[in-house]
Specification:
The complex is a heterodimer. By secondary structure, chain A is mainly alpha-helical. Chain A contains 9 helices and no strands. Chain B is built from 6 helices and no strands. The chains are: A mainly alpha, B mainly alpha.
């Protein structure tokens, strides 16, 4: 899918926050219409921030809400890993999916794939930010209730993006969606197991 | 595919509430039947919300079925989490999966002309009720599954 031109030459980019919120309700439609209009850096900013906050939440829960030097160092390390996973990891995942879906003769560009994969983590960002607020104000352990739930919500938009790459073939789309979900779940589990107290 | 996903979720729930191996296929069967009924209910409710649908119900049926098949990756990831990582988080994966597939089914019906607010509200209500009923069902079945297995 290439950028859709308008009277002004290129499609006007909608405000990022509207895209992020709308992806929760109608991911396929929003990604099809708006993913190519947003700069890749902004899209990767969404997934990078989502994973950084999600991993920070994990670190706070792992250290049982203590704020000593060790806990802060653990949080800094995990947040950095999260940010890297949300940017470089998602970019690599987009490359992997783009390459694996070549046999299906999809017309979508790599630029669209990269933006769509990054924006797919919009629900993760919303859930992670809400979870962090509850965690910091009420002291709740929110990694599972908000963090993992938000991460799982991203499977919907991710499947919509993969579906475009697979030209709506159900089985390959299902396999790729599961593979993507499993890779990121294992990455999060591995990182959080390695940096606990 | 959604029936397979429900069966897998049922098997995972049985593993966490009963120590008996025989409880697993029984729970998978129960979950598959319950899931099939739940999907039929969602299908009926969402299709009824599409105005001027007439007698051609093939497109909405296919759209809802395709959306519901999204539950399978959630079930497979729940299996990975439960069997590979040792987490007991099947209920969280199930609830998220139900919300996500409900939203996908609602979006599919919106594309066919259904009013957005109505189908989003209906699918959200379906997912919330389904997740609650699922939890209550396993609480009620736990002693019976252990005894019958």
């Amino acid at each position: 899918m290439t950028d859709v031109p308008t009277m002004a030459g290129t499609r006007a980019a909608p405000p990022l926050w509207r895209v992020v919120v709308a992806i929760m309700a109608a991911p396929g439609e929003i990604l099809r219409r708006h993913a190519s209009a947003l700069p890749a850096s902004l899209a990767l900013g969404v997934s990078g921030t989502a994973f950084a906050v999600f991993f920070a939440q994990t670190a706070i829960d792992l250290h049982q809400h203590s704020w000593n030097a060790e806990a802060l160092a653990g949080m800094a390390v995990l947040s950095t890993i999260g940010a890297l996973l949300g940017t470089l990891g998602i970019a690599l995942l987009a490359v992997l999916n783009f390459v694996l879906s070549r046999p299906f003769n999809s017309t979508v560009s790599f630029g669209w794939t990269l933006r769509a994969f990054a924006l797919a983590y919009s629900p993760t960002l919303i859930y992670a930010l809400c979870g962090l607020v509850f965690q910091l104000t009420l002291g709740w352990p929110t990694t599972l209730a908000f963090g993992v739930t938000g991460y799982l919500w991203a499977l919907g938009p991710l499947h919509a993006a993969v579906n475009e790459l697979c030209q709506s073939r159900p089985l390959p789309a299902m396999v790729l969606t599961t593979l993507n979900g499993a890779l990121l779940l294992l990455a999060w589990a591995g990182a959080s197991m390695g940096y606990g107290p | 595919m959604s029936t397979i996903a429900f069966a897998l979720f049922g098997a995972l729930m049985a593993r966490s509430i009963s120590s008996e191996f025989e409880a697993v296929p029984l729970s998978a069967l129960l979950a598959a039947v319950g899931g099939w009924l739940a999907v039929r209910l969602l299908h009926l409710v969402l299709v009824a919300a599409i105005p001027n649908i007439g007698s051609d119900r093939v497109a909405p049926t296919q759209a809802v079925s395709a959306a519901m098949s999204l539950l399978l990756p959630f079930a497979l990831l729940a299996a990975l989490a439960e069997l590979g990582l040792g987490w007991q988080a099947t209920q969280a994966f199930f609830a998220s999966g139900l919300m996500c597939t409900g939203a996908a089914a609602a979006a599919a019906c919106m594309r066919l002309g259904a009013p957005a607010l109505r189908v989003v509200a209906l699918s959200g209500l379906w997912a919330l009720t389904g997740a609650g009923a699922w939890m209550q069902m396993w609480i009620a079945l736990a002693p019976w599954l252990d005894a019958s297995a």
